[in-house]
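Format notes (please read before filing issues)

Several people have asked whether sequences and structure tokens are stored in separate files. They are not. Every record keeps both together, in the order shown below: the sequence lines, then the token lines. Line labels are part of the format and must not be stripped during preprocessing.
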Amino acid sequence: ADGTYFVGEYFDQTWGTGDFRSRPYSTKMEVNSLSFADLGKVIDFPEVHADGEIWMLALWEARANLIAQFGDAEGRRRIRLLVLDGMKLMPPQGSMIDARDAILLADRVDFKGASQTQLWTAFAKRGMGALANTSSGNTTYINASYAMPSNAAQVAFYGDSFTIGEQVRIILSDLNNDKKSALVQVASSSGDLENVVLTRNGSGAGSIFTGTLASSGNALILQNGAINVVPGDGITVYYLDGDTGGGTAKLVTQSASFTPGYALTGLAPRFSFNGERDISFFSGDQVVVDIPFDFPFYDKKYRSMNVHLNGLLSFGLPFNYAFSPCTDPASLPGYAAIAPLWGNYNYPFGDTQGIFVSFPTPKSMTIRWSVETFTAFATGKPANFAVTLTDEGLIQFQYGAGNVDLSLANTALGCGPSPVVGISPGHDAYSQRIVFSGFTNTAAQFEPPFNSPSLPVVIIESPASNDKVKSIMTVTGIAYDPKTTLSRLDILIDGINRGRATLGVTRADYCATANVPGCPRVGFTATLDLKGLGVTPGQHTLALRATNIRGGYQQFPESPIPFEMEAGDVRLPTGKLEAPTAGAELSGTVTITGYAFAADLRVVSVDTLIDGVTYGPTTYGIARTDICNALPTPRPLNCPAPGFRYQFNSQTVAPALPNGKHLIQIRVRDELGRFTVIPETPVEFTLKNDPLEKPAGAMLTPKQNDTVKGTIDVSGYAYTATGRITSVTLLVDGNGFAAVPFNRPAAEVCATLPDVKACPNIGFSYSLDTRRIPNGQHLIGVQIVNDKGGFIFVPTLNSYGANVNVQN
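Then the structure lines:
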């Protein structure tokens, strides 16, 4: 009478204790509250029948709504028909969302969409609403939604928390946006702003727009295709809905948080374990092992895990879960798992081999593998490794003897390289992997970004409050952590991430009176090009955010330091262009020399600009003690080598420099990335070259349109009027293939060239094995160069040689 429907009778009504349903089917949420958000959690682990209860509840809701719309008989008939026709319309191996969309499509096909509202109401009630999404039917990492599609847009992140470095996924629903794509903007709380184009998925009212955005912990760069964040940051997605219904526009937003990833730290090797128990007696390739404490891993806690023969610990998965046949980097993100050495192994024969568990302390446990690589036609190689878990969330990897040639193990067709070392939260698109140079007698650990034993301490020495600075600001001070290690110190100007300080600067002066943890390397320094960062003259504030490797962070000071930026540039590099001098007449080989330095900044590179075009490379770092010794102390950081030099052939340099007047300057780049041009007024010089003498020659074999195979002779002659030939290079399809021997006797050719002084030694010849070239059409030619830099390509029938047909 009240519109609530129950299933009448069950064979087994011992909910949750038998082998059948965990809960009764009901449209009352207080009786059965399961929804799409419970996927993988209906019972203690993902299981196809238990998770199927979620789908059956959604269909039960749809059935009730159709009965209410059409009456009992017609409602029952329609739900049966829509489910059957939906099965015909959904893709293979689809998800519950694919099945939802197929039923909605079946209603539009069969009944012109007569029950779209009723069906959407049912699915939304059970978490499969407008923003519900999943990457596939084989994952439990999903986004549930209880919203109905509407003209008023809705936007969501795929998850409410991300790890720095994880791909951010965005979902948008906007019923009256009929375009193929939609633009959103994502902003971080530390100042980054990125545009993201979302593309339409699906059709009809259920269609959504989805897109992805990389995340990075690097310094802020606007519009670089990745959202740059610092620890403690949040992000917000913005979508301007041009029509929420009735022509009203609205800015729609959603927010999420970021946490640092696990920190990889060193660990002393110690491949020795006491009190071990063999757990390798199980059949198959895995066993469920209880954890005697709550083990925190990313954003969840676990009391049991699957130990796999292939060197993996997985969480939240059922026993004998059908794993991917691959043990490669692409597969790891699909599982909440720890991979100390994920590969393909077998049990060798022997009393000392197997998989073992031990408990070094009441709050830690170790799993050790003593196995061998699985190879079909060769003897396996021993693999000895272990992983220790602690109640704090520490993950320690230990590697013993052996562990060589592991990549020779058999892998399934189409799989990537293995073994793989790393960890993954099971978000389908993110994992933290490491690469070791070897796996023998080594160790490492992942420190989690939570349960920090302490918080950082920062003392800012400069700038002082209300300091005045110009284009460059130096930030210095003391930074340490009482019980762990600092990982980063981010600099925030007006709350925006503008850079990162260098940690570990030696400060014996400070440590002489305050012996804090980490002494003497507790200093930090940073030099910021404020102008280059887009900071404008005026009043600003400075704050530092210090983060340790366990994710603990604090911002200093509590109230940001005010400072004033004045107009103008300071601390610019200086120097001199010594050669060429103004008005010089030059020809042939031109040499450019000089020096450049900054008083307290490092010069990174020097470029040569001729007529505003970059030529080079220009060598920087040439010793100039004559310059440095004449400077006051402390001398510039580049001393004693602030010199530069660039030499080029003015007749053959590219881009070409014709005879006549030209202008030259030097462009200096300092460590802040600033460019300074020296001298401010370009130096004028004149090129006065005689016409460039080019060599002469020809390729006699092979000839145009020859069909060739095996080894052929590429031969011809080359000479120059004066001077000498310096090189002959074989070209295949325009690319340098080999150096060709030249200056060989060529009497027959010389008989036709009576005025060539280099005769008779003008021949060249090279034996080309055409089996090194794919069959088909190719261009065969040579480049001839003389000692004056002149060059030609022969033959000239095509751009770089004669066309030949290789048929081996």
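For reference, the curators noted about this record: The mean pLDDT is 90. The longest strand covers residues 553-565.
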